[in-house]
Write a structure and sequence with these properties.
This protein is α/β, with parallel strands linked by helices and 716 residues long. Among the domains are: 1-52 and 508-588, P-loop containing nucleotide triphosphate hydrolases (Rossmann fold); 88-127 and 401-425; 128-192 and 377-400, no CATH class; 224-267, no CATH class; 592-710, Up-down Bundle (Four Helix Bundle (Hemerythrin (Met), subunit A)). Helices cover 55% and strands 8% of the residues. It has 26 helices and 11 strands. It has helices at residues 37-51, 65-70, 93-103, 108-132, 147-164, 168-172, 178-189, 203-213, 226-236, 255-266, 269-293, 309-315, 318-335, 347-377, 379-392, 396-430, 435-447, 479-493, 521-536, 549-555, 592-604, 613-634, 645-656, 662-676, 685-702, 704-710, and strands at 8-10, 13-16, 26-30, 58-61, 78-79, 452-457, 460-465, 509-513, 541-546, 566-574, 580-585. Mean pLDDT is 82; it is low at 84-91.
Length: 716
């Protein structure tokens, strides 16, 4: 049994010796990475080797165990077998295996056909792509994408295209030709469309029209009719002011007198009404003429996706016909105001009909312009949509269904083959003396939810994926899984039986260095239980070393200080002795937070020259953990980040009643950046001293009672 180490030198241990009777039967040792923990483990093995020549009497687990013991070859695939016991041989096993092998169906031919069919279908998709993309520079879908994924991508392309144009028909027939689209836009802008901007009568004019047509006027004898008045007005336009003889009758002419009499005639109510009716008739006549003229350009409506028949429909509609009748009645009324006509308001109906058609044409024009401009701006999207529609209308989908049916058949056969193969593997494994370890390991891995397993071939193990049943190498699994495999191998090999009840009598010493490295929480719990079980084994000496204070506390939970068989230690750098590694007894009833706090406190009181490499390595992360837990005492879930600086300043203000000065605010920001961003890069010793002192000072100001309680540790 190792009770002491004498004159040990390795790395940071320099001619180191422990006191006499220092170590006990069971030893649990804590040490941060970089302080000499693994060197101590090596020193224990070296010391034992000088006392005991039988190399089989000790077992040593460390981070090199995977390479040194677990792997049989250099190809990272074969794992050493653990021979424990021999299984019974069954004379019929070989025959059963042969019979089962005959039931395995060959699917390689069908798989090759599926592969070729998929390749051909992909070429068909690319061909449709090329035919429909026009001049758009659109690449084929990435070759690493499956056909299913490619079709989904095109479906997404169609969705995007429909955001540009809601018409699937337009997208289907879209041609990605930017020059043609620009020409279409220019043509559209110069296009002559039917002009339907009519004169609109006011409500007063409409009321006057209906009322006047229904009114019988009495013509006075001394007032000539409207035609005569017009004749007089035209006649005087041929005479100068100086003329005294009428050019028509050659009689005497008083030009001013004639003008006055015409004015008098026109001021007559009847004449006023006639004038208003004439103005209305002119407007209505122009409107009708405008409708008739629209026939000339109606063929251009096809360019804006409208049927030219809408103009014919307008010309032949009831409102237009009725308006023609109204104009005719107006002519007759103006000629003879004594005539009456029973008339309703048909002008409004006419205006509504024309405006509806006009708005329809304008909207179609705007829509067409927008469509062309949008097509120019989104030519690639529309081209992709066109490709997507072409694919939907092709036989690609039906061909893919056939492939899917064939793949389902292959999968069905492979599942059946796999079941047969598993039976064969079980039978073959039952013939091997190495099956116990495989069964043990696979059971553990399955219980932990780890999707890997061992398969046994000729007394060696091969890693496989538990569900996909594919081969794996050591490099395919995580560091935590590697470590777990190695530890399980180490653990199983300690015993004479597959129930791990009878430790091999030859084993006198077990050294386990950092068994829980890189493990997740569920695996960590299982490994801790394994280590605890090893610590309970009698008649052997055990050393367990860990860099995790949490794991150290877990392993040493319930240990009494007066236990003569077990002891707790800490590996540290001795400041008094030029930071050489040393070992001291310690206690475990110290929370991880209190331990880290006291270390940062000690760090804040050091000079730059006193800092060790280990101090520099751990400082930033340790400060972050301490500050985070301290802040959570004050405000739940508060993280020490720059984004939370204002909240931290508020905690300071509430605790002290004062404000954090600008200089200290700047230091606080620098600290938060240091512990979150800069903790993973090379840092200066001066930074560590500066930030640790500021952190301790800040905590002291906020909560001095807490600060005084946490800053010192009673190690023994």
């Amino acid at each position: 049994m190792i009770t002491e180490i004498k004159n040990f030198t390795l790395k940071s241990f320099k001619s180191y010796s422990t006191p006499q009777n220092f170590f006990k039967t069971k030893n649990i040792i804590f040490g941060y990475n970089g302080r000499g923990k693994s060197s101590l483990a090596e020193g224990i093995i070296r010391t034992y080797s000088t006392q005991e020549t039988n190399n089989l009497s000790y077992r040593y687990f460390n981070r090199n165990y995977v390479r040194e013991r677990l792997l049989l070859n250099d190809d990272d695939t074969v794992i050493n077998g653990v021979k424990v016991s021999f299984s019974e041989n069954d004379a019929d096993i070989a025959q059963k295996i042969d019979e089962l092998k005959l039931k395995i169906r060959d699917v390689e031919g069908l798989k090759n056909k599926i592969h070729n069919d998929r390749h051909a279908l992909r070429r068909s998709i690319d061909k449709i792509h090329d035919e429909k993309k026009g001049n758009a520079k659109i690449n084929h879908k990435q070759s690493r994408r499956t056909i299913e994924q490619v079709l989904e991508d095109y479906e997404s392309d169609l969705v995007e295209a429909l955001k540009v144009s809601s018409s699937k028909d337009y997208i289907k027939h879209f041609s990605a030709d930017s020059k043609r689209l620009e020409d279409d836009k220019d043509k559209l802008r110069s296009l002559s469309l039917p002009e339907l901007e009519i004169d609109i009568l006011s409500n007063d004019e409409k009321d006057f029209l209906v009322r006047t047509l229904n009114t019988k006027y009495k013509q006075t004898e001394d007032i000539p009719n409207n035609e005569v008045i017009k004749w007089l007005e035209k006649g005087i336009s041929f005479h100068d002011k100086s003329e005294k003889i009428c050019k028509f009758c050659q009689g005497p002419l008083n030009l001013q007198d004639v003008k006055d009499r015409i004015k008098e005639y026109k001021n007559n109510d009847i004449q006023n009404h006639i004038s208003s009716l004439s103005s209305i008739m002119d407007k209505l006549s122009r409107n009708l003429a405008l409708i008739e003229a629209a026939k000339i350009t109606k063929c251009n409506l096809n360019f804006i996706d409208l049927d030219s028949n809408i103009i014919d429909e307008l010309c032949e509609c009831t409102a237009v016909q009725e308006l023609s009748c109204v104009i005719e009645r107006l002519k007759n009324k103006i000629d003879d105001m004594s005539k009456t006509y029973s008339q309703k308001d048909v002008v409004s109906d006419f205006e509504q009909e024309v405006n509806t058609k006009n708005n329809h044409i304008r909207a179609a024009y705007t829509r067409k312009i927008t469509e062309i401009e949008s097509s120019i701006n989104n030519i690639d999207k529309l081209a992709k949509g066109c490709i997507a529609i072409a694919l939907k209308e092709s036989d690609v989908g039906e061909k893919l269904k056939v492939i899917h049916k064939e793949e389902e058949e292959v999968n069905k056969i492979q599942v059946e083959n796999q079941k047969i193969q598993e039976t064969i593997d079980t039978l073959e494994a039952s013939q091997s003396e190495y099956s116990d370890f495989m069964d043990f390991l696979n059971e553990v891995l399955e219980s932990l939810g780890i999707q890997i397993k061992l398969s046994l071939v000729e007394d060696n193990y091969y890693l496989r994926h538990a569900f996909e049943n594919t081969d794996l190498t050591i490099n395919d699994i995580s560091e935590g899984e590697k470590n777990l495999l190695a530890l399980l191998y180490f653990y199983f090999e300690l015993y004479n039986d597959n129930q791990q009840k009878n430790l091999k009598e030859v084993i006198k010493l077990i050294v386990i260095d950092d068994p829980i490295s890189s493990l997740d929480d569920s695996n960590k719990f299982y490994v801790l239980e394994i280590v605890k079980k090893i610590l309970t084994e009698t008649n052997i000496q055990v050393f367990v070393l860990t860099h995790s204070w949490d794991d150290f506390c877990q392993l040493s939970y319930g240990i009494k200080r007066d236990d003569e068989y077990i002891e707790l230690f800490e590996v540290y750098k001795d400041e008094v002795n030029n930071y050489k590694s040393s070992v001291r007894k310690c206690k475990c009833n110290i929370s991880p937070y209190k331990k880290l706090f006291s270390e940062i406190y000690e760090l804040s009181n050091k000079s730059i020259e006193d800092l060790s490499e280990c101090d520099i390595y751990h400082a930033a992360n340790s400060m972050r953990k301490v500050f985070e837990e301290f802040l959570n005492f004050k405000k739940a879930n508060l993280l020490p980040q720059r984004s939370n600086q204002s909240v931290i300043e508020e905690i300071y203000r509430n605790a002290t009643g004062g404000e954090l000065g600008n200089n200290r605010k700047h230091k606080l920001g620098a600290l938060l950046t240091f512990i979150n961003v800069l903790s993973h890069r090379s840092i200066k010793s001066s930074e560590i001293i500066k930030h640790s002192r500021f952190l301790m000072g800040l905590i002291k100001d906020i909560d001095k009672v807490h600060y005084d309680e946490m800053k010192h540790i009673n190690r023994l």
